[in-house]
């Protein structure tokens, strides 16, 4: 999927976490596992199955939004901040196939007090961008 060599370290969370996107204790969730790159980008390489389709063969738009929202949330959390989504804007560029290997990336763009602006992309295994989003997250617990 990526042609450059990356050094990634795990972004861990509680085993009791029931989050739909990343919770290992949620058997019906996406169970995404994020890692942090040297440039502070959060990265998840995953495949999302047909149980989350809209049109046959392609992921539902709400699931795509969830993938991007999760990457943005993790980009803020990688900075040691717990935050929740206030605003989310999604661009659906190409259909996202179910069962395909995907790369989801999230980046912290800037912060001001409790506000954090973030961005994320979903790419296919060739690196083509399928969807992208931006969001505003508000810190709910300052470290």
Q: What overall geometry do the principal axes of the alpha carbons give? A: globular
For the record, the CATH class is: Alpha Beta
In the predicted model, the low-confidence regions spanning at least 5 consecutive residues are none
Domains (count): 1
Largest sheet: 7 strands, antiparallel
Specify Rg, calculated over alpha carbons.
14 Å
- Class derived from helix and strand content: mainly beta
Could you give the order of strands across the largest sheet? 1-2-3-5-6-7-4
Percent of residues in beta strands?
35-45%
**What is the residue-averaged pLDDT?**
92
Query: Helix and strand succession?
Result: EEEHEEEE
Number of strands: 7
Helix content: 10-25%
Q: Please state the second-level CATH architecture.
A: Roll
Q: Helical stretch count?
A: 1
The separation of the N and C termini measures: 35 Å
Care to describe what's here?
The chain is 12% helix and 40% strand. With 143 residues, the protein is mainly β. The protein has one domain: Thiol Ester Dehydrase, Chain A (Roll), CATH 3.10.129. Strands 1-2-3-5-6-7-4 form a 7-stranded antiparallel β-sheet, with helices on one face. It is globular, with a radius of gyration of 14 Å.
Task: Provide a quick synopsis of the model.
The chain is mainly beta. The protein is 12% helix and 40% strand.
